[in-house]
Design brief:
The protein is mainly α. 88% of the residues lie in helices and 0% in strands. It has one domain (3-64). The protein has helices at 3-26, 32-64.
């Protein structure tokens, strides 16, 4: 995994932790760990999406030149 890939995953996980805390507090106050787990899963998905979008933008910029 490249350094950029790891960076996008780290950003996604950070977003996921924030979402997990919010989900845990709002939807699952009696079992906070469920919300954090769901948030982390969502965050990894977001990180993968960010990576794909960044690669697509980079590829479009190269082709546009």
């Amino acid at each position: 995994m490249s350094k950029k890939s790891e960076n996008y995953m780290a950003q996604g996980i950070a977003i996921g932790i924030a979402l997990g805390v919010a989900l845990g507090l709002v939807l699952f106050p009696e079992n906070f760990a469920i919300g954090i787990g769901l948030g982390l899963a969502l965050g990894v998905s977001i990180g993968a999406g960010l990576e794909k979008e960044a690669e697509k933008i980079k590829r479009d910029e190269i082709e546009g030149l």
